[in-house]
Amino acid sequence: MEALVRFWPEIALFVTTCVVMIVGLSADRTIRRLCAPIAGLGLIAAAYLAVEFMMPVSPSPMPYMAVYGKVMVAGVGLLLLMLFPGLADRDLEAAVDRGATFEPIRSTRAEFYAFFLFSLTGLMLCCSATDLIFLFLALELTSLPTYVLVSLSTRRNRSMEAGVKYFFLGALGAAMFLYGFSLIYGATGSTNLSEIARAFDVAAHSAGSGGQIPTIGLVGLVVALLGIMFKIAAVPMHYYTPDVYQGAAAPVTAMLAFVPKAAGFFAIILLLSTVGWRYGKDGIGTGNSLPEVLRVLLWSIAVLSMTVGNVLALLQTSVKRMLAYSSIAHSGYMLVGIVAGPGSVEGGRDAVLGESGIAAVLFYLVSYGVMSVGSFGVIAALERRNADGSVDDVDHLNELRGLWSRSPVLAGVMVVSAFGLLGLPPLVGFLGKLPLFTSAIAAGETVLVVILGLNSAIAATYYLRLVAVPFLEKGDALSTGIVKPSPFPSRSLAGVVAAVLIVALGLAGGYVGKQAAVAGRTGPRPIQHTHPRAGSPEAINSEPSLAPTASAARLNASAGAR
Amino acid sequence: MSLIVLLILLPLLGALLIAPAPEKSAKQIASLVTLVCAGVFLALAARFDWGNGQNDQFGLTWEWFKPLGLSFSLAADTITMLLVGLTCLLGPICAFASFTAIGERCKTYYAWLLILQSAMVGVFFARDLILFYLFFEFTLVPMFILISLYGSDNRKYAAVKFFLYTFTGSMLTLAGLAYVAFKAHAVSTSSDWTFDFATLEQTARAMSPVEQKWVFFALLAGFAVKVPIFPVHTWLPLAHTEAPTAGSVVLAGVLLKLGTYGLFRFALQMTPLAAYEWAPFLGVLAVLGIIVAGLICWVQQDIKKLVAYSSVSHLGFCVLGLFALNGIGISGSVLYMINHGLSTGALFLLIGMIYERYHTRDFRKLGGLASRMPVWSFFMVFFAMASVGLPGLNGFISEFMCLLGAFQAGGEHHWAPSALFPGATTDSLLPGATFGALGPWFAAFAALGLIITAMYILYMVGNIVWGQFKAPGHDDHANGHAHGHDAHAEHHSALPRDLSLREIGVLVPLAIGCLALGLYPTPVLRALEKPVQQVVATVQRDVQSASVAEAPPGAAPQAPVNLSMEAR
Question: Phi, psi (5° rounding) for residue A392?
């Protein structure tokens, strides 16, 4: 029962999902339309419950991340929800308005909102995972609904294609990290994250290991990380991103930019926290970074993601593809924080936002979520009327020309979001980037910081186009009259709220930053080296001499008992 | 409410006020707000204790982003006050000068002009590094928009180039600042970070020479682009030429000074060892800038481009004076920042007035304007002379101080090849030489720049002002250039042949400033004495203690060596 308390938010969301599924099928239009408000209430309730029943996840290597993660998911989820009206059943509802009878079998509204909530439930579960199996299921619960949402989002073939592409590559990614998980299990004899942490520590301390974790565990981590790179759209696994982002309707694209990315980063943080950022050149306890193999891997992925994402974004003329590549680049930025790690906790003081890369990533996730709702929100709030009378998303950059004269509010939102993504102070994008800078410097990764800085400058080139085209250029015949504001005002509202948040969090985001710093704290290590943290109730002090085999056997027994 | 805050907030409020106001009243609001700002500045200057200007005054701090120790921390000292004064003087001038030049999207124009002023004032008042960085970066946005909306033909390219150059450099600067903040955090006992100027300055000075070197280069990456120092100056002629008149005035008058201000405030005071070690390097770049940009000026066909390149050349003197690292050089450099803002700003205004009338900036199409526009010609000659450095006008004294500073600055580091000039070896300290790492050769080559300046400015003035009258007929241009043409045509009849009262009113304050600073710069120099001496003493103490012992510099405080404003 105690463990259940932690899951109140997820339970609340699940109940909401069930309600939404039924409500959405109602023959009464007013009741049908309650889907979105009910989903919103469910998210608010989930956030409330997450705070109300706040407790550290124990035992877990990242005990404090869950609450922050859940509240963040609910908050950004609410913004995303505001983008959704008009996405499902638009033609059907129009037909009903004209007098046709409502056929539940043809409606996708209920599924749409239900899958969205399912995905967010999975995301919330991700950040409170304590076990590899749990983590895998949570990741898949996050991803599977998104495949459906991509395909459902428009009635066009390209959405179908995008959905299928996304699904197959997603399955490949899932297979990879599942395989990685199995290797980790093989190396440590447990699927429980803190038991894995203990086994890794014990192995690294045992004689003859050279201070390293077993090779098979390392291979497992590498494979698992590569698989998860699919979720965050980082470089070797990024190929699907532009196609899928372009194929899906803009509100769903906004969701793709945040939800799987957040899930991926939660998973990466949890996985890496089993090893800990305590390795140096001479093995465990001699430094403040990941084992060399993992560090080099993540370092390269970070650099490649930033560079490839930004350089390819320069070449795009489609707004969605540009933002897709920018999303790849932002994953690269956040990986810098992962490489930096949670910072050393020395001298009895807690790691603060400035030196904890994990906290920096958690804070950046919020700012990126808000900024992508802002930028994709503008696209979602516009629509292009084709010659045959159908409507479609705005896609080409030039279709945004002269937006300032037609809809100053949307142009303003785009300008604020683009400057935010660029990292211009005092917007939240800058405050998000600053701790990435400082934490990486604190971890001694100066080269990475310089590359991050230069990449921000490359990125400025295309973000400036996002500013210039809607705000400064005059509309031409191509776009005037064809591109119109969408008839669903809540989409514009979502953009406006996001823009306000981009400014407000930049000027007064201290509270969020503080919570991120708390959430980025790691739990006590099974084996402490220096400065054992006095007074940690959860400290599990096992003996370094404990043989790995004995530990594994005991773990197996305990796993079997469950 | 504190006057400092008022100076930053007033323009912002003005911009907000313009948003709902009708299109026609935008210029009234903007000029009113900038005038009020100038008034507020005078009130602030009256309360400022000029005799004690090395210390921060009117300081105030609000929390901004606690987890990283960021705060809205503002204060004023002498350098700040001088540069803010320049900004507040140029504010109303820019607003009034744009009345006829800007015909469409007035609201956007004046609103961004006000926001720009707020950001510029903020840069100088900021006492938190990230707050400084915020304002520093935020000046880019209004300028980007002003250039790309209201500039001439090649404006989009110019705006993007301007933004990218500065932004790239400043990202590296941010990395350097973050490094210093990390060092400060590492030695402090509290778990809170801080980006406070004074703390970080202490930390940076205690860093090893190698660390200082890297931080110095990180700072240089951002500020050198902004100044701009010679090899990274290429954005400037383009931006200046394409920008609308007021944009050029602000750019030359204040924005370039952000670079020299940054070098003065951070490069010299945070990394004195590196500044000393690399002073010859920067000296060479400065001299190269002076000479090369001067020669480029000489071959320009476009008056505006000529004045733009002359900025590069003039700011070379500024940098040379700064890195002379002695009292006279640094004071001269700071004074030059003000002077350059006055005279070059005025030149841009004058060129803008011509452009409004004849829609050309081409040398070859203009000539003998003295016969048609005597008042304009008077001001043109006046400010050209100020720019050349005619004794009695403002350019002279500061240019001379920069050169003298460089001349006297030490003898250990002669860059003259000793094989060629055996007399000029390392220990031949000249009489009157002060601490520093430049020397007579730097001054000698930089002085060449004076001659070149005189040549190109006189060449320009001679061509445009005197001789046979020559100007493109208005009719040729009725259907001519694309941008803003309707605006010009519409207002064309409103402009008299010679300057209107409004235009004269815009120029007169600048002319008075030039005369005053040229004839009697003593009050400013006296106000600068203490702050500059403090900086010089800091640099000297650190360099000497680093060379005496291997001990970490700045650790052992010595008695400040009395340094020489008296060298004059």
Answer: -150, 165
pTM of the model: 0.88
Q: Which of B83-92, B201-210, B493-502: highest mean pLDDT? A: B83-92
Q: Which two tokens stand for residue A409?
A: 């509010």
Question: What is the per-residue pLDDT for B494?
Answer: 64
By mean pLDDT, which of A484-498, B35-49, B298-312, B549-563 is the weakest?
B549-563
Rounded to a whole number, what is the distance in Å from the CA of B356 to chain A's nearest CA? 23
Higher pLDDT, A537 or B531: B531
Place of tokens 């603060």: A352
Contact between A402 and A326 under an 8 Å Cβ cutoff? The reply is no
Is A461 part of the contact surface with chain B (CB cutoff 8 Å)?
Answer: yes
Task: Give A 350-409 residues with CB within 8 A of chain B.
Answer: 350, 352-355
Residues 6+ apart with CB under 8 A from A439: A337, A340, A341, A343, A354, A355, A356, A357, A359, A360
Radius of gyration for the alpha carbons in chain B, expressed in angstroms and rounded:
23
Question: What is the predicted ipTM?
Answer: 0.85
Q: Which two tokens stand for residue B183?
A: 């060092």
Which two tokens mark B342?
């006055």
Q: Give residue-wise pLDDT tens across range A445-482.
A: 889 999 999 999 999 989 999 988 888 887 765 556 67
Domain that holds residue A26: 2-87+108-523
Question: CA B100, B103, B106 angle in degrees (round to 5)?
Answer: 105
Q: Under a CB-based contact definition with an 8 Å cutoff, are residues A350 and A306 in contact?
A: no
Residue A102 CA to chain centroid, in angstroms?
37
Query: What are the tokens at A277?
Result: 């950022």
DSSP letter string, A454-490? HHHHHHHHHHHHHHHHHHTSPP-TTTTTTEEE-S-HH
B175-179, B255-259, B416-420: which has the minimum mean pLDDT? B416-420
Strands A279-280, A283-284: pairing is: antiparallel
**At B54, which amino acid appears?**
Q
| Cα B166 from Cα B256, distance rounded (Å) | 11
Q: Looking at the domain assignment, is residue A529 inside a domain?
A: no
Q: What DSSP line would sit under A274-305, residue for residue?
A: HH-S-EETTEETS-SB--HHHHHHHHHHHHHH
CA distance A336 to B50: 47
Residue at token pair 């000297």? B540
Distance (Å, whole) CA A32 – CA B397: 80
Alpha-carbon distance B129 to B170, whole Å? Answer: 13
A450 reaches B (C-beta below 8 A)? yes
Kindly tell me the sign of the dihedral angle through the C-alpha atoms of B454, B458, B461, B465.
positive
**Sequence ranges of the domains in chain B:** 274-418+427-474
Q: Is any Cβ of chain B less than 8 angstroms from the Cβ of A432?
A: no
With an 8 Å Cβ cutoff, the interface of chain B facing chain A consists of 63-69, 130, 133-134, 137-138, 140-141, 144-145, 148-149, 156, 159-160, 163-164, 167-168, 171-172, 174-175, 178-179, 181-182, 185-186, 189-193
Among residues B186, B181, B206, the alpha carbon closest in space to that of B271 is found at B206
Counted domains in chain A? 1
Lookup result for tokens 């320049």: B86
On whether the CB atoms of residues A297 and A237 are closer than 8 A, the answer is no
Please indicate whether, in this complex, the C-beta atoms of A450 and B149 are within 8 angstroms of each other.
no
Tell me the average pLDDT of chain B: 84
A384 φ/ψ angles, rounded to the nearest 5 degrees? -105, 130
Is A516 a residue whose pLDDT tops 70? Answer: yes
Q: How far apart are the first and last CA of chain B?
A: 42
Q: Give the whole-angstrom CA distance, residue A370 versus residue A77.
A: 10
Contact B133 A425 (CB under 8 A): yes
pLDDT tens profile B357-412: 888 888 888 888 888 888 999 999 999 999 988 888 888 888 999 998 888 887 55
Residue % of chain B over a pLDDT of 90:
39
Residue A128 lies in a domain: yes
